Amino acid sequence: MYDDSMPAEGTAGDSEPRQYRHGFRNDYSEGAHPRLLQALAQASTQQNRGYGLDRHSRRAAELIRAHVCRDDVDVHLLVGGTQTNLVALAAFLRPHQAAIAAGSGHIATHETGAIEATGHKVLTVPTDDGKLTPAAIAPLLDGHGSEHMVQPRLVYVSDSTELGTIYTRAELQALSQYCRQRGLLLYLDGARIGSALTATGNDLTLADIATLTDAFYIGGTKNGALVGEALVIVDDALKADMRYLVKQRGAMLAKGMVLGTQFTALFEDGLFFELARHANLMAARLREGLARLGVGFLVDSPSNQIFPLLPAAVVERLEALYAFERWQALPDGRVAIRLVTSWATPQAAVDGFLADAQALAAIAAPAPRADATAAMEH
Description:
single chain; 378 residues; alpha/beta; Aspartate Aminotransferase, domain 2; seven-stranded mixed β-sheet; five-stranded antiparallel β-sheet; 15 helices; 14 strands; 40% helix; globular
């Protein structure tokens, strides 16, 4: 698994700055799309009500309701993904209840125990592709049937997942139906929902997600916003007193217009999906280029995260030129690395990485064995 506490782009810890040719470490190294910054600059010249009651936040909520085709959902704008998950799950669960997540799920691996710190256990299910299914969840439920254990109550999924995989409509429908049969809430982490919804092979829409889940959030931070996530609550039973709970958790931004302005700019004319499509196109270019070089992948991920398998020697050489994360070492000596593209990734950076990978792979290739060479000479 990657460690995002590693040195930031362009640095090498506390030593002298390292000049990378480009960073593929994450999709939030750049600030914000210029149109969002322009909208923020304009809104900043006006006086706005605080705490998300401003006209920009109200307009953003209206646009999101239009995109999910539901007038009855509640929309709350928060700053970051971990904060949104913490606020939501702490509000939705009673003290004795737990969440179910894939073993690679963000709440289980990369949120410093934020959910557990609210008193709720995260029960994990091993998966190869980061996705949950009814069959994977059933044994866990069967093993938690008494008051001497936590009560599983909420199923947490991500789209796209931590492995860059995406849910199909049929998969999410099956999971949604199962959750309703078993009395479970279904919550979708949409930190990279833009990438998922614009990925090749996707057949889900925001409207589908609003129909199939009890709550979900739309990620802005990883798709062109400076900061911001939009929590969408569908289930009426989960809506009460949410603003109180947001405030109590320290998640209510006084200058709420900073969030509202950005989501308005993202959803007024399709910019949200345009930026996600660009990130996916750059990832596809990387994926296809590496595949032509004979590179395999840890998992089939059609979104903006890809996990190529490279010889350790090639990875080491590439690390001197580009910022990315080592994800997993394989027994055969190859290393799975994570490459992430963003709304701002230039094609030239992708092509440069592919050219360097090809050159370094040729250098790192083992020389022909002496006996094989001799045999060819005869």
